[in-house]
Amino acid sequence: MKAPAYALGLSGLVPFIALGLAAWVAPVTSLTAVVVIQAQYAAAILAFLGALYWGAALVQPEGQVQRPWLLLGWGVVLPLWAWRMTWASSWVYGMSGLFIGLAVAYAADVMLRKQLPWPSWFLQLRLWLTLGALFGLGLTLVRLYTFKPAG
Questions:
Q1: Residues sharing a CB contact under 8 Å with residue 71, sequence separation 6 or more, in sequence order
Q2: How far apart are CA 35 and CA 140, in angstroms?
Q3: For residue 151, what pLDDT band results from cuts at 50, 70 and 90?
Q4: Best CA proximity match to 106, nearest among 83, 85, 131
Q5: 95-141 confidence digits (pLDDT tens)
Q6: pTM above 0.70, yes or no
Q7: Which of 38, 48, 78, 114 has the fewest other C-beta atoms within 10 Å?
């Protein structure tokens, strides 16, 4: 299970990093499209991370889930946060919110690890995936913060 999870997880970083680089090399007229595509992908990943909490809670025997409202509730908060960030008042705010959402999702994984039936190697994988995603979003955020339209 570990090898496929690492291979597929790391391949999921390609859109984050490729779009982060594209924000710097694409024509200015394409910047909005790059940002929208990356924001949608980040939102999808946050929703996926929320689903992990539902899966973790549902595979445990009935009555043995510690704090089910917390686990299931957190699984709903992540996609709602992601969805809200896709229609923020500006792309800088939205991308910043998605960046924060991914970082907070990892922090929650660390804090709740004792309640989750995940394998021992999973948090290490989540760390690498989170860092890669934040790097890609960070590239785009720096581009957005430094972009000066002509005129």
A1: 53, 54, 56, 57, 65, 112, 115, 116
A2: 7
A3: very low
A4: 131
A5: 999 999 999 999 999 999 888 888 999 999 999 999 999 999 999 99
A6: yes
A7: 114
